[in-house]
Amino acid sequence: VHLFGPASAPGETTLEVRPGQSLMQAAVAGNVKGIEADCGGLLTCATCHVYVREPFASRLDLPTEDEMGMLEFTASPRRAGSRLSCQIRLTPELDGLAVDLPESQH
Ligand code: FES
Predict the structure, then answer these.
(1) Whether 102 contacts 6, CB under 8 Å
(2) What's this model's pTM, rounded to 2 decimal places?
(3) Which residues contact 9 (CB under 8 A, 6 or more apart)?
(4) Contact 105/48 with Cβ under 8 angstroms?
């Protein structure tokens, strides 16, 4: 997966991931700055916000009602492609997944 930093901290991080991990878990394991994940994936913090690029955004399952609710609380503006990375399960179909990191998670 490829994670692109925001304007204040540009740069690309590429991670090798295991299918079945969440994107948040992979990012935390890879020490990616910009993914805080305060709640550890319990869907209560919204500090694992990412902007998923196309064509990948369209391949994801639609957000659950709980994820939709937490997306109201992201620190950076919500945009098309906004998702919580703890809810993105990495599968072979998402090979090459590219996401942009928000300016802030707090
Ligand atoms: Fe807290 Fe994703 S890690 S909502």
Answers:
(1) yes
(2) 0.96
(3) 33, 34, 101
(4) yes
Task: Please indicate whether residue 37, judged by its CB atom, sits closer than 6 Å to ligand 1.
Answer: yes
**What sign does the dihedral 17-18-24-29 (CA atoms) show?**
negative
Q: Which of 21, 35, 44 to mutate to test the pocket of ligand 1 (most atoms within 8 A of CB)?
A: 44
ipTM of this complex: 0.99
Name 61's Cβ contacts closer than 8 Å, sequence gap at least 6: none
Q: Convert the pLDDT of each residue in 16-29 to its tens digit.
A: 999 999 999 999 99
Q: Which atom of ligand 1 is nearest to the CA of 39?
A: 1
Contact 14, 38 (CB under 8 A): no
CATH superfamily of 2-100: Beta-grasp domain (3.10.20.30)
